[in-house]
Write a structure and sequence with these properties.
It contains eight helices and seven strands. By secondary structure, the protein is of the alpha/beta class. Strand 2, helix 2 and strand 3 form a beta-alpha-beta unit.
Length: 234
């Protein structure tokens, strides 16, 4: 049994410019590859995992120098992502799924768009076209949700559920969002738009994942629509 919270790397040993944050649940098949690919492009970044795994994911991550915060028993994606964003030490926080679906080589570009070009949030959109790695039903669901949000927020949106974004840490600290429930990425994109923060969207590649997906499409659709309406009406 793991303790509820465990931080394993001193914050002073990593860069305060960038944190790469991931939420992990039984990703031992992918975690080493993903961490090494991050280290290859941003070797001084803090790599932070909020982990609820029963497998060896946290031990592998720690052995590679990542900082691990245990959230066990699991509290869900929203609370885990909120904890990751609030706990990051970097001036910029790039979020990433730990399943090898996102192009880690673009992390420096996302960071620089925040630091050098003044964007508050940079959203990596997978859906400028249908990715081969995304099942058709998932693509159509994402397209429908994005169409609804585009109308309600008067901004062409394509991908409300991207797992790859860069956030200015000061914006994360200012935002008030509800971490409970599913579909938190929807609110983390729409609320900054509504509150006038500078949001930039860039196309990214989406790859076939390592391991099994835990996403529940119908539940995700329901929560996504609720998030869209709550943000718009709040």
């Amino acid at each position: 049994m793991f303790p509820p919270t465990e931080e394993t790397v001193e914050q002073g040993s990593v860069s305060t410019t960038l944190t790469v944050a991931m939420i992990t649940l039984d990703e031992e098949g992918a975690v080493e590859k993903v961490i090494r690919s991050i280290q290859a492009v941003v070797p001084d970044a803090e790599i932070l995992l909020v982990d609820s795994s029963k497998d060896a994911t946290p031990q592998i991550a720690e052995s590679l120098g990542a900082r691990v915060i245990r959230q066990f028993p699991p509290s869900g994606y929203g609370p885990a992502m909120s904890l990751a964003l609030r706990s990051a030490v970097g001036d910029v926080v790039v979020t990433l799924d730990c399943d090898d679906t996102y192009p880690t080589e673009l992390i420096p570009r996302l960071r620089d768009l925040v630091l050098d070009e003044g964007w508050d949030i940079v959203d990596g959109s997978r859906l400028y076209r249908k990715p081969d790695a995304m099942p058709l039903q998932n693509y159509l669901g994402n397209w429908l949700l994005s169409a609804v949000a585009s109308v309600l927020f008067a901004r062409r949106l394509r991908d409300l559920h991207s797992g790859m974004r860069a956030y200015r840490k000061s914006v994360v600290e200012e935002l008030r969002f509800n971490p409970k429930g599913a579909a938190l990425p929807v609110e983390l994109l729409l609320r900054p738009l509504k509150e006038g923060y500078r949001v930039h969207i860039v196309p990214i590649e989406y790859r076939f994942r390592i391991g099994e997906s835990t996403m529940r499409p119908l539940e995700t659709m329901k929560w996504s629509l609720l998030r869209i309406l709550r943000v718009r009406l709040s």
